[in-house]
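Ticket #4471: structure export looks truncated?
Reporter: QA, pipeline team
Priority: medium

Steps to reproduce: submit the single chain below to the structure queue and open the exported record.
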Amino acid sequence: MPVREHPSGKLKHVVREVLSKAWYTLYRYTYEYLRDDGRWDRQQREVYDRGNGAAVLLYDPDRHTVLLTRQFRMPTFVNGNPDGMLLEVCAGVLDGADPEACIIREIFEETGYRVPRVEKVLEAYSSPGAVTERMHLYLGAYNPGMKQGDGGGLPQESEDIEVLEYTYETVLKMLRNGEILDAKTLMLLQYAALYGPLRDPAAQ
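Actual output as written to the record:
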């Protein structure tokens, strides 16, 4: 993606190099940045552009349950996750699609549920120090009658996704105990606990 003009003129002499296009694109940016003390500081940053994404916390308001997925994540395995398996909300890369259409499609591919609508609640940058990705975050209600497929992800994308259902009480306990390690999942569960369907399980 091209670099925009900085609104206050704090960037100049921006040079972009492509380091890798093996999966998505890794760039190296070299530029000068105007510091608050008036000095121009030459900086260099690597930026990984994998596009933007969408994620959704699926919840059943009648049975007080949520759906999470579990799959192997190589980056977590090489950084201390013992078996590399990670609990997450359903998510996907937009690849140019509308965020809402993308996440509804991802729900079916990963879980097998045909969810007709979702509610957008947040946007967040995944890892702004190095990754361009901006996540569109949703809540979506589901029920057993919406199950129309096997889920598990797409074999052609090497996806091997397990779908797990937890009660509100259990997932909130997991949240408190630090068993949820994925950032987008933490954000959505915390939002749901503060403002959404998980706010007061006893009153649902």
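Status: closed, not a bug. The export was complete when the record was re-opened. Leaving a note from the reviewer for reference: The mean pLDDT is 93.
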